[in-house]
Amino acid sequence: MTIGIVGAGQLGQMLALAGYPLGLDFLFFDRSADTPAGRIAPLLAGEFHDETLLAELARRSDVISFDWENISVGALRRAAHGTRIAPPLSALAVAQDRLAEKRCFERLSIPTTRFASVDSRASLSRAVDRVGLPGVLKTRRFGYDGKGQYVLRSRADIEPAWDALGSAPLLYEEFVPFEYEVSIIGVRTRAGEIGVYPLNRNYHVDGILRLTLAPWIAPALARAAQRALHKLLEHFNYVGVLTIEFFVHRGRLLANEIAPRVHNSGHWTIEGAVTSQFENHVRAIAGLPLGATAPRGHSAMINLIGTMPAAHSFLAEPGLHWHDYRKEPRHGRKLGHCTINESTASRRTARAKQLLPRLYPQLALRP
Amino acid sequence: MTIGIVGAGQLGQMLALAGYPLGLDFLFFDRSADTPAGRIAPLLAGEFHDETLLAELARRSDVISFDWENISVGALRRAAHGTRIAPPLSALAVAQDRLAEKRCFERLSIPTTRFASVDSRASLSRAVDRVGLPGVLKTRRFGYDGKGQYVLRSRADIEPAWDALGSAPLLYEEFVPFEYEVSIIGVRTRAGEIGVYPLNRNYHVDGILRLTLAPWIAPALARAAQRALHKLLEHFNYVGVLTIEFFVHRGRLLANEIAPRVHNSGHWTIEGAVTSQFENHVRAIAGLPLGATAPRGHSAMINLIGTMPAAHSFLAEPGLHWHDYRKEPRHGRKLGHCTINESTASRRTARAKQLLPRLYPQLALRP
Questions:
Q1: Which residues of B touch A275 (CB under 8 A)?
Q2: What CATH number has the domain bearing residue A312?
Q3: What pLDDT was estimated at residue A146?
Q4: Are residues A229 and A340 in the same domain?
Q5: Alpha helices in chain B, H assignment, sequence order
Q6: Res A240: pLDDT
């Protein structure tokens, strides 16, 4: 069986590394063969809207998946010609549009921040009236890692915010002074089997995930996150891995966004869960039963951003697992990650505290 | 850095799967691209003695390793042109020749079975006089999984044994009615750092490994195995993973053979140790520090021989890990393996007992 994957980044590479032992083949589609997954699997190179290439991907694949979200739902649907696509395009379409996402949360009674659609300077002004200040103006599409956002602290910010982002469809959202961020990752098969990983606590700096601690022990939050996850998985008749990111505010969860794919905050599952998110995504979309999602010990995952540290001294750290995506260094770019795993949560957190200043000497990031 | 590997079987594939996250590239050399490792990495196809292709492998690699033993030490040395080879060819040469292996054990005072060199019908007769009956006549070279062996129970067997094997250089060895078999796997870096995995207990049927339980808790045996391993690693100034197989006889270890490579009895380390044998082999030969060799829980590894069972029902087993090498089914051929991992040894053994009759309905193999 061949799994076709649109996007050949590190997520795609980790999917292939997890799927090869199951006897599966992979075929990737990306703009360039010089990509993390292109190093280890055959790849079709072309623009993402190229329907001839998408159709070739479909023809040569038993099921199509994607490792990132900014692809054309329409082009993919037209090119697929009946080849199964998982996760469902309905979920991808919602994840691509912050407004549709917010409305989906509302419809499923999943608590989220207050918001309003913005499509003109006047409607931004009305949105600020209704939702209040401070707030965040966001593009509805193509935002990630904090890009395409503008924080409004007073009505004087309406003009510059509109000038910065007004050319795209927008959403204005309540600014929530949340205490911290968590995410939950689940997986569902075609047969309706569901697996849920424990809660992740995520630490961002400059809008980019830097550190995940998992399992994050917070039973009430975990239950609320699981409820939201089950609702979304059933709503979309979902197949594959789905991630929800939440703000934690006054002890409650507010859904921030969904990602219809394996997620950076689940990289720790490679070494820290019985079955990784990557293997379970592949199992689900290939029509296989799920593997156990139980954690093994307590993990910390640290992203390696912008420049790769010299591996040598970190590989000597007992039990540290190193993942080098072999990407060209660039400011703010995710180039790799490393994971540690300990027998207790406090030991895990203590080790993360030791490692962070070595990996991020400029950053005052402390769990 | 590119790791060149002679042989592209399942061991090579698992080396590449372990090395990709470290940012390493692989180049394989085998008779056909239709091999487990050829599915996931570039491959040079040709005969193993083809020194032009071996030289190309050397030119394109930073270090050369091998995933099986029946390759020409001379051709590899000549073709390498100074490219590093690890493990050392001196260890490969000894592993290829049962007589050299036995003499190496003797020289290092590693207990082994009594033996005698055989190069004529008359010397076989003398060897039987000296070593006694029953005994095993073995080819010195190119034997594996019980092939190239003849058991002698009386002097009447001398004639047929010689007729069967006499065309090759031979070794006659005491037949030891051993209680069971164990193996130990260790790894050494160029800097002399050594890591040792816990003892494996191995169950063979028809000369083929079927089941490994690890860690096998037997402290005195483990200490003796570690001593032997350290001696061999230092003796060869070894770099990479080395395996020793032992018979357990009257509570003592008798070294049976060495494998200068990752080993079937160490497949459980993928899910059952902090760092797998595959990753540590790659780390060692790439000049990187070792990862921890500590076990995680208690593992059972079951080989899938001759025909692949339908994956579906086994993947539904909680915490079972499936490895399909995607090889053509053939009687006695290793096509895959599966691993389970439990929190206690007794739970692990109980689950292995449940699984074995399903995977081997014809075999009365019970741990």
A1: 319, 321
A2: 3.30.470.20
A3: 56
A4: yes
A5: 10-19, 51-60, 73-80, 89-96, 98-107, 121-131, 158-165, 219-235, 269-272, 277-285, 311-315, 345-359
A6: 98
Asked if B77 and B188 sit in the same domain, the reply is: no
CA-wise closest residue to A149 among A169, A167, A163, A165: A165
CATH of the domain at A133: 3.30.1490.20
Backbone angles phi, psi at A125, to 5 degrees: -60, -45
| Residue B98 in domain | no
Nearest-neighbour CA in chain B from A351: distance (Å):
16
Q: What is the pLDDT of residue B143?
A: 61
Region B332-347: what's the mean pLDDT?
97
Number of domains in chain A: 3
Under an 8 A CB cutoff, do A318 and B292 touch? Answer: yes
CA distance B226 to chain A (A): 21
Per-residue confidence (pLDDT) for residue A74, from 0 to 100 = 93
Burial class of A1 by CB neighbour count within 10 A (0 to 12, 13 to 18, 19+): middle
Dihedral, CA of residue B121, residue B125, residue B131 and residue B132, to nearest 10: 130
Q: Answer whether B17 sits within 8 Å of A20, measured CB to CB.
A: yes
Would you state the structure tokens that stand for residue A176, as one six-digit string?
């929530």
Instruction: Write A196-199 long-range contacts (CB < 8 A, 24+).
Output: A196/A226, A196/A229, A196/A293, A197/A266, A197/A269, A197/A273, A197/A277, A197/A293, A197/A295, A198/A222, A198/A293, A198/A295, A199/A225
Which residues does B231 contact at the CB level (< 8 Å), separation at least 6? Answer: B108, B109, B110
Nearest CB to B40: which of A20, A274, A326? A20
Q: A139 lies in which domain range?
A: 114-174
Residue that terminates a domain, selected from B148, B174, B200: B174
Banded model confidence at residue B33, pLDDT cuts 50, 70, 90: confident
Q: Is A19 in the same domain as A143?
A: no
The answer to whether residues A141 and A281 belong to one domain is no
In a shared domain, residues B223 and B281: yes
CA pair distance B219, B200, nearest whole angstrom: 12
User: Mean pLDDT over residues A108-132, rounded?
Assistant: 96
Same domain, B203 and B327: yes
Q: pTM for the whole thing?
A: 0.95
Q: Provide the ipTM.
A: 0.94
Convert the pLDDT of each residue in A12-62 to its tens digit. Answer: 999 999 999 999 999 999 999 899 999 999 999 999 989 999 999 999 999
Which residue of B291, B312, B336 is in closest CB contact with A288? B312
Judge whether residue A142 has pLDDT over 80: no
Mean pLDDT of B253-271: 98
A17 interfaces chain B, CB cutoff of 8 Å: yes
Q: What is the mean pLDDT of residues A230-239?
A: 98
pLDDT digits (tens, 9 = 90+) for B68-105: 888 899 999 998 888 999 999 999 999 999 999 999 99
CA–CA gap between residue B194 and residue A288 (Å, rounded)? 40
Q: Which residues contact B255 (CB under 8 A, 6 or more apart)?
A: B105, B110, B111, B112, B228, B244, B245, B246
| Locus of tokens 């539904």 | B316
**Beta-bridge mates of residue B119:** none
Tokens of A78: 């037209």
Spell out which residues of chain B touch residue A10, defining contact as CB-CB under 8 Å: none
pLDDT at residue number B147: 67
Q: Are A286 and A1 in contact (CB under 8 A)?
A: yes
Probe site for chain B from A315, A339, A343 (most B CB atoms < 10 A): A315
A318 and B CB contact within 8 Å: yes
- What is the nearest CA distance from B303 to chain A, expressed in angstroms? 14
- Same domain? B247 vs B153: no
Tell me: do A317 and A223 sit in the same domain. Answer: yes
Percent helix, percent strand, percent coil in chain A, to nearest 5: 35, 30, 35
